[in-house]
């Protein structure tokens, strides 16, 4: 089963896929572009992984003082940074390097506290796609990655669908890719995660209780490139979804 | 199961669960780092506000017990004024920033002590129940000056630190302006003004309290992890 949360006709609805686009829980069938897509679940704590793909570690190696063998590199985000499918992400005028990151998002469904690796996957409700933008111009060497780089309004895109865990046979064997204006710029496979999903849930739940709605953004592989105003960025994970986002400029925000 | 139930979780002060604090906002804390600020890995003082998040699993009401993990002896007890946002703040001017605050509260931000601010593990700051908020929210109008508030921290009833919100790199208004430049602050969000330099450390079986005139006293106690019982 896959579900979305959309705004339509003055209310917020749950929706499911339909050959014509999507169907609201009240029966109405609509085209994909007729609704406003919100994040597909009520968002709790947003937990993100840095450098969780071996090739991305290599790509950013010159910035590193840690190796991928260290503790998982985790940072947090606030729900306010999140937007849904077909949303608009702001690129500030002064930015010179703003890049997407296609990531498998693991949504927690049951309270997880000090769970073992073996029990971890029982706490997963499902999966969705995340495009977690970064603006590297704002990177500072304090509490990296600082929130000004990674926790900006409109810069964490989630959706379109929350796909039940039961419908994904192996979340560690999913091809993922990003295209900018139709040209593929990033490709990878969740098989290449440094810390896999059970390892992350076991690690995190060792010091912080995970609750339904918390989401783990599992990191991105090699292949991040700069995006510009007007670009359409599509992050896609086979079997999970195809998440569309458009970059807009400061003008849109009256800046 | 840990269950956040904040005593003041009632309109108009319902908290959103978002609690964010700035690193090294106290000028003395930054100064204490000395030349290290210029050297690797930092290579310069912070430019923007550097923030950390106390996620919802950390939130606990006044009076709560905070567990100290078996892997360390002490927790650092960071005391901060909490700015409770009342009106959505997006790219606000510092001159109007305080109008977005509905009230003030106290925050006890408990951390596992760590020396590096480069890329510390979130396990130092994101432990369950490591952020006490309360005991109440006072209306903005009730506090004369958020940037000149005396804070007293005690351990087992004995004075451990006397500090104030004076001497911050960013005042309350400036902090709201600079944070809201990139992340919108929403009603119920709590923005810490910043933990004072020289935060005391407490051990298991100690009690602590943060006192601020006009706001009240935020109590807490420290317990060893194994006293908490099974998961």
Q: Would you give an account of this structure?
A:
The complex is a heterodimer of chains A (255) and B (231). With 255 residues, chain A is mainly beta. Chain A has helices at residues 54-59, 117-120, 147-150, 197-205; strands at residues 2-8, 11-18, 21-24, 29-30, 36-38, 46-50, 73-77, 82-83, 87-91, 98-99, 102-108, 124-132, 134-135, 156-164, 175-180, 183-189, 215-217, 232-237, 241-249. In chain A, the strands form three sheets. In chain A, strands 1, 2, 3, 4, 5, 6, 7, 8, 11, 12, 14 and 17 form a twelve-stranded mixed β-sheet that branches. The mean pLDDT of chain A is 95. In chain B, strands 1, 2, 3, 5, 6, 7, 10 and 11 form an eight-stranded mixed β-sheet that branches. A five-stranded mixed β-sheet of chain B has the order 4-13-12-8-9, with no helix packed on it. Chain B contains three helices and 13 strands. Chain B has 231 residues and is mainly β. In chain B, a hairpin with a 2-residue loop joins β8 (150-155) and β9. Chains A and B meet through β7 of A and β2 of B.
Question: TL;DR?
Answer:
The complex is a heterodimer of chains A (255) and B (231). Chain A is mainly beta.
């Amino acid at each position: 089963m896959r579900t979305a949360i959309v705004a339509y006709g003055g209310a917020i609805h749950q929706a499911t896929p339909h050959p014509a686009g999507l169907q609201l829980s009240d029966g109405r069938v609509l085209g994909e572009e007729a609704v406003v897509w919100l994040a597909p679940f009520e968002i709790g704590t947003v937990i993100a992984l840095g450098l969780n793909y071996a090739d991305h570690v290599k790509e950013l190696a010159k910035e590193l003082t840690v190796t991928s063998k260290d503790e998982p590199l985790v940072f947090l985000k606030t729900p306010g940074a999140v937007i849904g499918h077909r949303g608009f992400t702001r690129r500030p005028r002064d930015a010179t390097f703003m890049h997407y990151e296609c990531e498998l998002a693991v949504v927690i469904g049951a309270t997880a506290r000090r769970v073992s690796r073996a029990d971890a996957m029982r706490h997963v409700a499902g999966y969705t796609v995340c495009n977690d933008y970064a603006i590297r111009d704002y990177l500072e060497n304090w509490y990296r990655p600082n929130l000004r780089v990674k926790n900006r309004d409109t810069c964490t895109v989630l959706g379109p669908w929350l796909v039940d865990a039961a419908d994904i046979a192996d979340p560690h064997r999913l091809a993922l890719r990003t295209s900018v204006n139709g040209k593929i710029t990033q490709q990878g496979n969740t098989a290449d995660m440094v810390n896999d999903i059970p390892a992350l849930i076991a690690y995190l739940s060792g010091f912080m209780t995970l609750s339904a709605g918390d989401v783990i953004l599992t990191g991105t592989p090699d292949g991040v490139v700069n995006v510009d105003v007007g670009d359409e960025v599509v992050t896609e994970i086979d079997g999970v979804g195809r998440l569309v986002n458009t970059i807009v400029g400061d003008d849109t925000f009256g800046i | 199961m840990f269950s956040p139930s904040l005593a003041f979780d009632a309109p108009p002060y319902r908290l959103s669960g978002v609690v964010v604090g700035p690193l090294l906002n106290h000028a003395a804390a930054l100064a204490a780092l000395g030349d290290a600020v210029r050297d690797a890995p930092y290579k310069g003082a912070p430019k923007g506000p550097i923030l950390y998040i106390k996620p919802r699993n950390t939130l606990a009401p006044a009076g709560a017990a905070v567990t100290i993990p078996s892997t360390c002896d002490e927790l650092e007890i960071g005391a901060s004024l909490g700015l409770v946002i009342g009106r959505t703040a997006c790219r606000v001017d510092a001159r109007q920033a305080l109008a977005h605050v509905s009230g003030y509260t106290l925050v006890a931000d408990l951390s596992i002590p760590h020396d590096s601010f480069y890329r510390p593990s979130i396990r130092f700051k994101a432990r369950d129940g490591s952020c006490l908020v309360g005991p109440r929210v006072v209306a903005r109008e009730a506090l004369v000056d958020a940037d000149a508030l005396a804070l007293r921290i005690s351990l087992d009833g004995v004075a451990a630190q006397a500090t104030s919100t004076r001497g911050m790199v960013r005042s309350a208004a400036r902090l709201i302006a600079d944070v809201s430049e990139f992340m919108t602050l929403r009603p119920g969000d709590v923005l810490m003004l910043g933990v004072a330099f020289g935060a005391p450390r407490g051990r298991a079986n100690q009690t602590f309290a943060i006192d601020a005139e006009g706001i009240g006293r935020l109590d807490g106690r420290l317990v060893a992890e194994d006293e908490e019982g099974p998961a």
